[in-house]
Structures are given as C-alpha cells and as structure tokens.
Fold each of these.
Amino acid sequence: MPDDPFIDRLVATAQTDPDVVGLVLAGSSAQVERRDEWSDHDFLLITEDGTPERYRTDLSWLPDPAGIALWFRETPHGLKVLYRSGLLVEFAVFDRGEFAGCALNHYAVAVDKAGIAEAAAGIQGRSLAPSPVDRLAEFRNFLCLVYIATGRARRGERLSANAFTRFYATEHLLRLLRDLLPADRRGQLDKLDVWRRFETAEPRIAAGIDAALARPAEEAARALLDLAEADLPALWPEFPVDEARVVRGLLGW
C-alpha cells in the first residue's frame, strides 16, 4: 500500500468507520511508481446499503476537510475535490450492489471488511476482458469525422470543427492504432482510456498526432489523414487506400 499522508489518513478513517466496508485505490494511487507532482488521488469507497449518499454530500470524513478549496458532484456516484495545496482527488462512493457494476483497471484494495478484494478481482476481469475492434468501421468513422470537421471549419464553425478534429476523429484513429500495435506494446496502454499512455507505446506516431493537433482545425484534420495514410498500411495490410483517397479528393487535398 502506498506510503502517502493523504492515503494513510483515508485508510485510517475507512478502517474505523463502521459504515465503510471497503476502500479501493485506483490509477496512480494504486500504482505508486507512476505518481508525479501532477498525479491526483483516485479511490472508491464502499459503504453499507443506505449510507453512500451521506458520504457524497458531507465531505467531513475526507482528510483535511478544512483544506478543500472546491468540490462538485460529477456523476451520481462520483465527485472531484481540489485542495488548496493543489491535490486533486477523484472518488466515487458505492454500496456493494453499486460497486459490482463499476469498472476497474489498476487497483489496490486498502480496506476490506466484506469480500471487497474478491469482488474487485471479478470487476477487473470483466472490465478488462478483450472486446473486438472493427478496424474498417473505426477507419471509416475517422474518415467521415475528418470530412465533417473540415466542412465545419470552412463554414466558419471553428469550435465544432475543433471538437470533431481533436476529439472525435482522433479518438477513432487512436482506437484503431492501439488495436494494430503488437501485443507487447499494447500492454503498456491504459486498458480503459484510449488516450492514455499511447506516447509510451508508440512515441513516434504519438508525436505526429500531437504535432497535427497543434495546427488549426482543417490543417489538423489533413495532417491526421496524412499520418494515417503514411503509417497505417505497414501495420494493416488491408488498409483501405481507395476510401482514404475518396475523402482526400472530396476535400480537394
């Protein structure tokens, strides 16, 4: 378990609170070797039936509640808390039934009073079970989003064009690229977040995507298509060359 003053106090509270049945650390709170000055703390608190809402609305149980600068409810179960020290905390509170329906990647069970470790192992197994990627559908979606983004940029809808280029199109390209990587490099990626740690697994292509996204929306969209046409065929022999050319032609590229 990590040696961290915040986590130490959180664990002590969870161990002594009779309504808390488990505490599961997630992300870099569980993988301390990944922590740096920008890391937040992520955890899941599991409490007795009928009690979670109290922990979501009254934060006096958190370490140093007087040091909280701001907080808000992000989802029905989850909150973000920013301390004046700069520490960001993201957590969710579940009862046991709600916990069974969540997703887990890397985790560490810090407090277990009711079979939480066994439940967490099952949740992680379900969460990380491989799901097939339809490569052709991902690439076609990428092409259509590049086309939409460019049209909106030319129409003057720059904010929408930026969203379509920098998020929607890029996300489908990343999903395809991640599936095409050799298994040993895919193991370095975050299993639940398509954006995380691609730079570690494929630094050259990641740098190319980053450089593309630094450009104005249409230039970025074109640069992403350039990158796809340059790098995907070596990884994907079935790369649909003609479909990429159709979009390039329609956009006058």
Amino acid sequence: MADPRPLALVSGFGPFEAFGVNPSAEVARALAARPPAGLRVRSRILPVSYARAPLVWDELLASGDPPELLLGLGVASRRRGFSLERWAKPQLKLVLRQDVDGRSAREFSVDGPRLRTSVDLARLLVALRRRGVKEASISRTAGGYVCEHIYHHLLAHAGERGVPGLFVHVPPLRFAPLERQIQVIGWVLEELLSAR
C-alpha cells in the first residue's frame, strides 16, 4: 500500500571552502532520517558544483513518488539567521569564487527571467515568529553563486509540477547549533505543507 503522507524533497550542499561540515547537508540528512510528524522527506546532498548540482536534483526528482514540495538548503557564510529566498535568477555573479570543480559562474550564467517562489513568504515568516523563530527574514537575493543556480533550477521544476518550491539559507554553526537548525527547517516543512 502506498504511503499517504505528503512527500517533501530536500537538498543540502556538501563541503566547500571553510565549510568542512556544511550545516545545510546535516539538516537535510536529519530531516530525512527523522521527518516531522505526518510527512515523508527524501534528501540528497549536492556538490557545490554548477554543473553537477542540477543533475543530482534531477535524480532526486526521478527517484520515486511525486513530491508535494521542493526545498533547497544552503549555508550563508556571513548571515546569522535563516533567509527565506524570494527570487532566483539565471544571471550569476561573475566576480564570485569558483565552485569545487574549479569552474566559474561565467560558464553557467545565462540571460532569462528571474523566477519567484509561489510560497507566501510573509505568511511563513509570521508562522515562524509564532513558533519563536526571531532569527528568520525574507531575502531578495539568493547570492549569485551555486545556491542561486540550483534555486532557479528548483523553481523551474516546481513550476512544471505545480508544487511549492523554496530555498532557505541557514546560518553557519557558529551562529546556530545544528539541533536548532533542524528544528526550524522542520517547522518550515510543516508550515509549507499545511498551507497547501
């Protein structure tokens, strides 16, 4: 018998630069192992690679039941809180550092429309505040690096499937311990799936 619980697909990123342990990967793994009540979570860890990260998302999308939510996670190296990303654009910041494969944004930056999440971020922010999450905010830029690249890819797939898609930047572990990050992102999943 098929599992009736709604399925969320969640990605995090692997190590890069100073982040030998990337909290976004640890949160994605933990939520797949211990999903919020009433939900199923399937996760993948993406390489910080312009070329390879979208391929891993495509594998995740093709690996089972159709999802009801797509959630991407990444770490923001200098942000203290949780950033709910509103937009993703295909034009990347050409001055940024290379990815883990030594490739630059110049190879992957293309012209095209920016995409906006269908998630009501104001409502989500209010719901998180009610749960005591004061360190969350709505962000207008996904950063122009691999996170922006994968968020644009994720939103395109979400639009094709008619499901919500969202990217959240989590803080470095020095600003928020892992258990707190797992708790907050678990609440994000609960709120998004309850709003369907």
